[in-house]
Amino acid sequence: MKKFIAVACAAMMTMTGSAMAQDWSPSGSVELQIGFGAGGETDTLGRVIAATMEEQTGWNVVPQNKPGGGGIAMFTGLLNAKNDGSVIAMGVSMPVLINLTLRGDQLPFDLDSFDYLGTVTRAQLAIIAKADAPFDDMASLVEYSKEQGGVPVAFDAKPQELMLMALNEQTGAGFKLVSTKSSAEMVQFVLGGQVQASFNAGTHIQYLEKGDVKMLASANADRHAYAEDVPTLQEQGYDLYTDPYFYFAAPNGLSDDAKEALAAALDNAIKSEKVQDVVTNVMQNSTNNLGPEGTKKMMEDGLNSVGDLFN
Predict the structure, then answer these.
(1) Residue 115 to residue 96: CA distance in whole angstroms
(2) Contact 136, 227 (CB under 8 A)
(3) What's the Cα-to-Cα distance from 65 to each of 87, 92, 179, 182, rounded to whole Å?
(4) pTM
(5) Contact, 117 vs 292, CB < 8 A?
């Protein structure tokens, strides 16, 4: 009987919480800002989530690309947005954390400038090349670059740029760093021969399956489920890795009702079949929503970890 009462009470609390979240709704459109350019995995994921939120809630959710600096431009602009729930943002953790670590005194924001709403998944970051490239791993890419007097390698976020700089310093590879707007652009640069290799966080998988590109390394701390035979950078002798999360934030100072409603709407969208399909089939990954408190803790812990890395 006690167990039944406890379960019933828990159910009532859940229903009450849901009702409270549903009591709030935006006075107009909700703009979902995406911190990267059109066509990449962040853009794809953000647009599917925006469409699903709109379908599930009846709100008008409008995705907007705000590329620049791996999300730094977007989060800088977010400081001037209203904290009424009308603007939320989707970014990637590592570019923000590294910029805060390396030049936090030059940025107009810190971690406390935002309210956190949840995460979608951890990005699986690869290093890729065209399928017929004359190298198959990082060591042979390094040697090929030395032979050629330096070859162009693409990136679209600060962590990737720093990793390339570290590889140049460690190996003397002489990589020529090419900045791009998205993974979609990087794939096209690889296929078109403008660069010899690039980072990528999911857009490359369809080309990998078709045999147009090959994967040289995982840039995460572990191997990717879709390419378990490809070793990490660390396994190949380079003590470098990144584990970025796709996450949502809003201007600091959201009302409790607005924060709860937005977090719930995002969580429901992330659990939907449409979003699950994108994460599973396009990104070859699984969803992992840490929720508002878990997301804040992930960012705080991440900032400490990045600080240790660069000290």
Answers:
(1) 15
(2) no
(3) 13, 14, 18, 11
(4) 0.74
(5) yes
Tally Cβ neighbours within 10 Å of residue 274.
13
62-93 residue pLDDT tens: 999 999 988 999 999 999 999 999 999 999 99
- Tokens of residue 299, six digits: 């960012």
* Count helices and strands in the chain by DSSP H and E runs: 11, 10
Establish how many alpha carbons lie within 13 A of residue 97's alpha carbon, considering only the half-sphere containing its beta carbon. 26
Taking only the tens place, the pLDDT of each residue in 259-269 is 999 999 999 99
Task: Give the integer Cα–Cα distance in Å for 40 and 261.
Answer: 28
CA separation for the pair 89, 269 (Å, rounded): 15
The b/e string for 103-134 (b: 16+ C-beta within 10 A; e otherwise) is eeeebebebebbbbbbbbbbbbbbbbbbeebe
For the chain, give the longest Cα–Cα distance.
Answer: 77
Sheet holding 197-200, edge to edge: 176-179, 152-155, 197-200, 126-130, 213-218
Q: Determine the residue type at 234.
A: Q
pLDDT tens digit sequence for 159-191 = 899 899 989 999 999 999 999 988 889 999 999
User: Facing residues of 250 across strands?
Assistant: 115
- Residues near 150 by beta carbon (within 8 Å), at least 6 away in sequence: 173, 174, 175, 176
User: DSSP 3-state helix, strand, coil percentages of the chain (rounded to 5)?
Assistant: 50, 20, 35
Cβ burial 171-200 (10 Å sphere, 16+ → b, else e) = bebebbebebbbbbbbbbbbeeeebbbbbb
pLDDT attached to residue 309: 63
pLDDT digits 0-9 by tens, 211-262: 999 999 999 888 998 999 999 999 999 988 888 899 999 999 999 999 999 9
